[in-house]
User: Fold these one by one.
Assistant:
Number 1:
Amino acid sequence: MPNSSPKAEPTPPWPKHRKTEPGACSGLRVGPAQGAHAQANPCFPMPDLPRTKPAALRRDALLDAAERLFRERGFAATSVDAIVAAAGVAKGTFYLYFKSKTASLVALQDRFVFQFRDAIEQAVGAHVDWSDRLDAWITAALNGYLDQTAVHDVVFHEVRPCARRIKSNHLVIQSLALLIEGGAATGAWRTEDARLTAVMLFSALHGAADAAIAGLTPLDRSACLAAVLRFCRRVLGLA
Amino acid sequence: MPNSSPKAEPTPPWPKHRKTEPGACSGLRVGPAQGAHAQANPCFPMPDLPRTKPAALRRDALLDAAERLFRERGFAATSVDAIVAAAGVAKGTFYLYFKSKTASLVALQDRFVFQFRDAIEQAVGAHVDWSDRLDAWITAALNGYLDQTAVHDVVFHEVRPCARRIKSNHLVIQSLALLIEGGAATGAWRTEDARLTAVMLFSALHGAADAAIAGLTPLDRSACLAAVLRFCRRVLGLA
Amino acid sequence: MPNSSPKAEPTPPWPKHRKTEPGACSGLRVGPAQGAHAQANPCFPMPDLPRTKPAALRRDALLDAAERLFRERGFAATSVDAIVAAAGVAKGTFYLYFKSKTASLVALQDRFVFQFRDAIEQAVGAHVDWSDRLDAWITAALNGYLDQTAVHDVVFHEVRPCARRIKSNHLVIQSLALLIEGGAATGAWRTEDARLTAVMLFSALHGAADAAIAGLTPLDRSACLAAVLRFCRRVLGLA
Amino acid sequence: MPNSSPKAEPTPPWPKHRKTEPGACSGLRVGPAQGAHAQANPCFPMPDLPRTKPAALRRDALLDAAERLFRERGFAATSVDAIVAAAGVAKGTFYLYFKSKTASLVALQDRFVFQFRDAIEQAVGAHVDWSDRLDAWITAALNGYLDQTAVHDVVFHEVRPCARRIKSNHLVIQSLALLIEGGAATGAWRTEDARLTAVMLFSALHGAADAAIAGLTPLDRSACLAAVLRFCRRVLGLA
DNA sequence: CATGAATGAGGTTTCATTCAT
DNA sequence: CATGAATGAAACCTCATTCAT
């Protein structure tokens, strides 16, 4: 891999090695031209560490690298070069796993959604009382959001056409809407339009979290949670 | 005559854009290349309209063109070339008025902010009763938002680091917070934390609007407004 | 919607070169657009010669092209476009090997320095007598300089802040200073300040060469050399 | 340092100009478009200070501004915009006095040459003894050079095609050559080739000054001068 | 599975110069 | 004498993607 380019040597020191003289090569090639990598005695070449990994692991490694970089510098500002450097693979490898840079963002979204939803539903599932379920939902959502802010942002913000935020959170809101409907059906609370209420409550929660993150409210996390819970109960006529 | 310091980047001070004596020149209008001005029948070319305009008008024209294009294709997808073509001026003229493409986006934000705030405050100012003022605020905000969605999106979405949305809306939320505080002070309603309540109410309003735009709720605009108003009143213990 | 901080330049993080999803792309060789490679008869298109070369060769080819063009038209007047055209590669390839146009000039300097120094020291090394060594140094330097004038000029003239010429020649002068000191130590000649004497002798040599090149003196190369040698000996009290 | 060809257009004269008929004026022009100048209260307009100056003064002011900027940032890196800003005039005014940016550099060269030569000849003229005249010449040249380094550099370095340095200093060297010849004619010293000796001595002086400026020699100005004088005398067989 | 040299369209920005007022 | 809005060619540099090995 005769890299004489001035670009910084990619993070991982364990180098990848290009192996051979290609057969149909131009007569010009005078030497082995192995670049600066041939640090070992060329007479006793290292038996080429295996560079391969199970596909799933490699894919995850790439996804991890991408997520970190997207978070740190934004999607558009992150080049595929940077991702592969961070993952310690060659450029082509990236395209072995993702059709495009955008495709890797979508993969990240899937990963996020799956985990986020899972966490909420698991929390809710532990309760039977409707009021408890509501509290659990709100709590899990707020915590999850606060914990994953950076990822959430990058994953849902950086896409054009900047789909309405609501749309992105469709599944999560649906979950809340069902909860609200369920509670209403059993008389736990009253609501005119479960779906729209869910939308607004979720948005309120989101906004409170954003404010907390932005440092615009002096409240700590638990106080924030308390405020959101109170807000919800009031909307649903609980308190 | 070697240079002892081997790798130091020598100060590279040449201008990057023109390397040769320009000689015969740019300003020379030799052909029909009059840019986008030639809107009239090319068979009867105008005898050289003066191309200058008062600076303010030119600036506005550029801003208008930029806003339209940003709305239609997004900020990043809009090239300065496109903007100047739409405005009917040369590329350099753009940079006469804005330091960079990004700077033009900022100018757009300023314009938007000014108008949006103005509209809300004007609507509120027409009422004295606190409840009416609240309703007016909500109504004006929702309508304003629904009317200006496209601009709003482009103007506030395309910036990194995607500052918390809440932050961007700081001024507007502040306005709502003051309103809520004012009402609370006179006993028009009760609230524990005017600021956080404002944040959440504004977010809820925003979310409802987004849902309406995204077509996720079957309600029309007035029904949406009614729902939001009801939501607000409930939160403030009014109804 | 409004953004409270009015004028702050928002971090502008989008990549500057590609704004839309690239989709089907550049690398795709769809047409005959094979760049400057198609040197063979276009009627019988080569079945896609491999375009890759060992990095070192490509780098050298680029450097050669750059040197020639810099010499012919000057650094600033040479565009990267011209360089890559001359080297028969795409624009991006240039930036694969050099971080910037300036960086390629630096690479050229390195190349020149290496060769120039080598030549002088090799010539000197063939002698043991101090006087012979001095003559050899002067001769090699003058010849080398006269032979490489064009390269020398471009390589050391085009940089700002036009570091004192002396500085650029630091290594070479150092070599001369050591020689003078060595001779003085063994009583071959006398000198008050070896370093400053080296500086002045080297400058005198340089000046004589410049005059010869500029055609300001009617002497041929050997006469010029003789004059410089005589000058030096006189300064060192040899003749 | 003088450039022998005084007024010659540096490079082929570039054609220019265009002329068009103004024709009818658009109705769009609404104001006088006075730009940012109208800083005073428009209701009580300042009675327009006269902005005009005698041509010679304005020209000098522009030249001063240009010299300072060229010195600080280099010729190419200095824009006409910067010059006019520094001189406090409008862009067009610059072109009223200089045909191009390059022309202003040439004007600067003339100014420099005139002053430098004058200073040396005046110093020499005060002596009659040949040895004193030589000393005076060297002293004045070294001092003048050390005092005017920055200007000298910018004025003689930034032009393409980087004429041999020797050529630029033609007049000054000629002056030295005549001095050496004169002394030789009267038997004050001996020399084989006055012209070449002058070249080399001047170069040595130049080199010593450069080294001093670059901080490569620990000597102060008077020590440097002493060394150069000693060097010269040795070359001419004086000491 | 993996590599990495090569591509090249596309973008932003600069600034010398003109000319109508 | 002076202005300054407008021009527009031309430069540098980026990076998503391909494909021969």
Number 2:
Amino acid sequence: MPSQPASMRDVAHRAGVSLSTVSRVLRDAPGVAPEVRQRVQRAADELSYVVSRNASGLVTGRTGRVSVVVPFLRPWFFGAALSGISDALREADLDMLVYQVGETRSREGWARALPLRRNTDAVVTVSMDLSEEECRRLEDVGVPMVLMGQKVSGRASVYIDDRAGTAGATRHLLNLGHTRVAYIGSRSEAWYSTSSRHRLEGYEAAMAEAGLSPWPVVKAPGHTGGELAMGELLSDHEPPTAVLAEFDDIALGAHRTLRRAGVRVPDSISLMGFDNHDAAAVMDLTTVDQAPYDSGLTAGRLTVDILNGAARHTHVEMPTQLILRQSTAAPRTTRGLFP
Amino acid sequence: MPSQPASMRDVAHRAGVSLSTVSRVLRDAPGVAPEVRQRVQRAADELSYVVSRNASGLVTGRTGRVSVVVPFLRPWFFGAALSGISDALREADLDMLVYQVGETRSREGWARALPLRRNTDAVVTVSMDLSEEECRRLEDVGVPMVLMGQKVSGRASVYIDDRAGTAGATRHLLNLGHTRVAYIGSRSEAWYSTSSRHRLEGYEAAMAEAGLSPWPVVKAPGHTGGELAMGELLSDHEPPTAVLAEFDDIALGAHRTLRRAGVRVPDSISLMGFDNHDAAAVMDLTTVDQAPYDSGLTAGRLTVDILNGAARHTHVEMPTQLILRQSTAAPRTTRGLFP
DNA sequence: CACCCTCATGAAAACGTTGCCATAACCCGG
DNA sequence: CCGGGTTATGGCAACGTTTTCATGAGGGTG
């Protein structure tokens, strides 16, 4: 149990060979006699020695590390995404650095504030909605980058088709026979979200296709926004019979308002979310699954492929999946919220 | 816009000084004339140069990186914890490596499989419930370690008092006048959890204190377990009037069963969770907040302090907080689930 | 004016690896 | 038995920093 960690020299000494040979063995490089190889391996094990990525990176130029940049770490979505990325990187024996840039973002310098320059082999951004200029700045770091949750032409991206997702969701409600279908979206000043815009567009397109006029209500993100928006909708002179929310958290907020108002779901109002949040299952909320774990896994593997120079598809569109639960149903034939 | 990232030599050349001087400037080391300092700083900025942690770590022995080891990344709890740790490390300009060891854990070698040895300054484990032996193996890595969500004497730990938490929760229900208070716990074969045991003990202690006999039901973790357990409780010849769940997810599962059975909360049965999960707010679930973000922040700062040799308290107990919402109330005076 | 101190600066030796080149040992065919 | 090729091994110079030590320029004091 050495208080100073063993170095390659120690291993070499113990195995009675030179540094070069030890290096070759530990890198699985050819040109070492099997017997010697075994001896070195044993010596390394006995000293529980592992190669310093620091030192090897210095000469190879590879750090064995991939940086993942996320706006936030708390929302459910990012945990799932990170989990996928982590698993993919582990397969390739790469370590994962995580940078949460949250509030820093508004300040101009977050991209350069991150010590990425010589310290990472690749950068994966998750739902960062980077502007063209931010992309360029990040590219300046000089390592490959993969964008998850954002589609940028000319740059490797893994994303879902938000428009198709909400369009499908909307059609589900229309197919049930609803005609008064409202949409609760979000807008935050701190964070401009492309996916937010796309989801609204998908809804609008499906409504237009059915010859109906869209009915969007936009509030601050989070469940509070959903609560307020639903309150507003309930106070309309003729409330909607179905409501689609931009994401599950909003839908859950809306659900709370309905519960308090004594409006039954789906009897009086059908409610739908988007994301397939953990809590959606337990709340029996019909939603659209976007499998962030799978996206993360894909993004991670894509990164590995690019690093190995074996990347083929640089744009990957992940499928979304309608999850039918108990919160949507055909509209009642009688009018009014309370039968 | 150099395709090869700039090195310190380039900066030195551009500023017309030696390597040593550049190094001193960028480390904020004393002994540089203000005018020169400024000149070097500018040169570095223009080349958008950042120090290679790889190279500096090689000589200082510090990597500027802290490893965080978690069993899983997906559950809500870990995102919040990581967020706090990340913020704390960022304050000290340390990078965060994340290792998700999930299933690997059962295999003996996860601790040594981690290439931590020379590649990290400290290790933070989150809810890993390490055995004494695993602790020792991890300590072999030769860097300070901080345990979050686990109390181990002689080792830096940040944790909550699970026993006190459930005891307080139980007393809340007892104070409302309930006498038939059941507890839904979890047990998984893959994962032995100390906190799980402690929470049960807290409940039992509070019940004993009130002279009541405990009524625990143990199922698999997750909301499915909650659903099943609640079904079981409802089929008792005299169902409980209040139920405490080991964590919110279980409580939410139980809530679903109640909803389906048409049993009203809190009118007929009071329901309580533990954790203050995102979804608990939206479901109006009374619960116990354990602020994983704050724990993460504390653990992160403790790590930084230890690294700076300034650690004072190596054991930090984080407070828990009862969050009163709408799912608990005094028991009805009339008997039966349906008034 | 000589002396010693302080302060700013530069030169050079680490740090722990990998890559390249040299060397030694061996095998094979002529 | 000798030349040429292959294969295993060692030596040494990088890689980009920090750190230690040396040097030299001023500046105050006696």
